[in-house]
């Protein structure tokens, strides 16, 4: 081989390697990880870019002649601020003040619109402040209307049939939702923007994946059609796959089962796997529960366990899941424990035996999780175990039992009044004022006119004012001191 040919061959190898490198960079930049792109964003074709500065309320938009060679992540780390007036050869499209501080922005390929997304749904509802800015009309924006999107399927504690009155208190372990969103955005056709959104609950956990289309011409928001959702099950982005599976699960249509099953066989992302299995179970496929139970047992993989617990808390309860969910109460991750507790509480009586076993754990935190679960099951045995834990030697467990019985307050099964009285006395002896006070109030509200309960309340009168308050309401006597109540009780016992 001549030197010239050798040099030409080497140049060809270098050129091919460079092309391959650029292709890899292009693939990496196309796969945008969900996040809060506060300061910099690019259109899907990367020719339009926008950045936010000045306390995140001023935005500047430019159009390039060609897409940059650097990956998006590196561009996003660039210094874009008030001094930046565009790259060489760019055209300034807009420079304006936003009416809100966005968490994610996306300019469209034609540089006509800028989409902005914000965190404003602190009550757990759908965001209401997202908007589309019309860039050639300074100051004009249109709000996005989410009213046509389906309601989200969320894990919910069951209603307690014996609940006393109305209560606005949140169930144990409940968290505020909607305070942190991450997004994926992609222009799939002129005027059609595909948006993926997920709620982050902290750490590496993501939940409630949803995808929808924004139509810029009408400023409308719609859910993708089933055929588009089936196509998204094969998308390169896990968030879109998970969100598509979630929507297909909500539809619960038989014709989507094959696409979901095929996708599940290839899926490696744990959130997407959980949502696909959930969708199949919703459609009537019982075998996919095994997939969820397998994820729930995943060693050293908290996101898998959380995703599975969430899915099992949203499908129709089945006793087949009881043991796996009860073992999940032993996890150290609070989100997994909360979701497993909800799933078990919704299951009702079939969950009692395995959760009762968890209530005997040597670990106080596991006993507490079991009590929160048992307190939401309408079963005398479940309630009795919660009452027995009022005599637990661990003060935190004792307090948790009192909280479980009063959040919300409920009418106890009459067969358990004696156990309640023993627990009330134990809390007084342990000098646990918060637990004692809660139980005294419950005795009055639940109208526990039972000799053992009355005797326990009388015994507490020297130390707990709420015991006197409860007795006054139970027996309608205007006695105000411990001595008066002891004398009254002595008389009452003599009558019996």
Write a structural description.
The protein is α+β, with helices and mostly antiparallel strands and 496 residues long. 44% of the residues lie in helices and 15% in strands. The protein has helices spanning 3-30, 72-76, 226-232, 238-251, 257-266, 270-282, 288-296, 302-312, 322-328, 334-347, 352-358, 364-374, 380-388, 395-406, 417-429, 433-445, 451-460, 465-475, 482-495; strands at residues 40-42, 48-53, 58-63, 91-97, 104-107, 113-117, 131-134, 141-143, 181-189, 192-202, 205-215, 220-222. A hairpin with a 5-residue loop joins strand 5 and strand 6 (113-117). Helix 12 packs parallel to helix 14 (395-406). The relative contact order is 0.06. The model is unreliable at 1-30 and 173-178 (pLDDT under 50).
Gap from first CA to last CA: 117 Å
Radius of gyration from CA coordinates = 30 Å
The largest β sheet comes out as: 4 strands, antiparallel
Task: Tell me roughly what share of residues is in helical segments.
Answer: 40-55%
In spatial order, strands of the major sheet run 1-2-3-4
State which percent range the strand residues make up.
5-15%
How many helices does DSSP assign? 19
Shape: elongated
Structural class: alpha+beta
Mean pLDDT rating: 88
Find the count of extended strands (DSSP E, 2+ residues).
Answer: 12
Low-confidence stretches: 1-30, 173-178
Give the tags.
496 residues; alpha+beta; four-stranded antiparallel sheet; 19 helices; elongated; disordered N terminus
């Amino acid at each position: 081989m001549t030197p010239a040919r050798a040099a030409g061959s080497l140049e060809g190898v270098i050129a091919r390697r460079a092309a391959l490198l650029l292709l890899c960079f292009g693939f990496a930049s196309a796969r945008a990880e969900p996040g809060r792109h506060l300061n910099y964003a690019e259109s899907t074709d990367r020719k339009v870019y926008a950045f936010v500065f000045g306390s995140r309320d001023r935005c500047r938009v430019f159009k390039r002649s060609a897409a940059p060679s650097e990956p998006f992540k590196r561009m996003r780390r660039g210094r874009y601020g008030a001094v930046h007036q565009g790259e060489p050869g760019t055209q300034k499209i807009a420079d304006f003040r936003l009416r809100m501080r966005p968490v994610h922005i996306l300019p469209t390929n034609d540089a006509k619109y800028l989409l902005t997304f914000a965190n404003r749904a602190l009550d757990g509802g759908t965001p209401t402040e997202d908007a589309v800015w019309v860039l050639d009309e300074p100051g004009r924006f249109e709000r996005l209307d989410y009213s046509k999107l389906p309601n989200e399927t969320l894990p919910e504690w069951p209603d307690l049939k014996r609940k006393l009155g109305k209560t606005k208190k949140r169930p144990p372990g409940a968290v505020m939702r909607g305070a942190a969103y991450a997004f994926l955005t992609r222009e799939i056709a002129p005027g059609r923007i595909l948006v993926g959104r997920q709620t982050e609950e902290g750490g590496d956990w993501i939940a409630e994946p949803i995808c929808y289309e924004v139509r810029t011409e009408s400023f409308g928001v719609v859910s993708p059609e089933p055929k588009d959702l089936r196509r998204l099950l094969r998308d390169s982005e896990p968030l879109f796959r998970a969100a598509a599976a979630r929507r297909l699960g909500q539809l619960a249509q038989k014709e989507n089962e094959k696409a979901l099953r095929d996708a599940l066989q290839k899926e490696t992302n744990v959130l997407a796997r959980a949502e696909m299995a959930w969708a199949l179970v919703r459609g009537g496929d019982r075998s996919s529960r095994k997939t969820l139970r397998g994820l729930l047992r995943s060693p050293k993989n908290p996101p898998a366990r959380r995703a599975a617990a969430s899915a099992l808390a949203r499908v129709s309860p089945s006793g087949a899941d009881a043991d796996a969910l009860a073992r999940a109460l032993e996890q150290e991750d609070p989100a997994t424990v909360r979701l497993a507790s909800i799933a078990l509480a919704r299951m009702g009586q079939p969950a009692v035996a395995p959760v009762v076993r968890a209530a005997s754990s040597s670990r106080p935190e596991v006993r507490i999780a079991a009590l929160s679960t048992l307190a939401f099951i309408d079963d005398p045995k479940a309630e009795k175990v919660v009452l027995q834990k009022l005599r637990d030697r661990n003060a935190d467990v004792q307090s948790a039992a009192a909280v479980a019985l009063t959040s919300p307050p409920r009418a106890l099964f009459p067969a358990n009044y004696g156990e309640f009285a023993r627990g009330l006395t134990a809390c007084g002896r342990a000098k646990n004022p918060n637990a004692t006070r809660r139980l005294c109030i419950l005795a009055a509200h639940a109208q526990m006119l039972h000799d053992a309960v009355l005797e326990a309340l009388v015994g507490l009168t020297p130390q707990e004012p709420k015991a006197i308050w409860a007795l006054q309401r139970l027996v309608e006597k205007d006695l105000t001191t411990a001595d008066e109540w002891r004398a009254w009780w002595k008389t009452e016992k003599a009558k019996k």
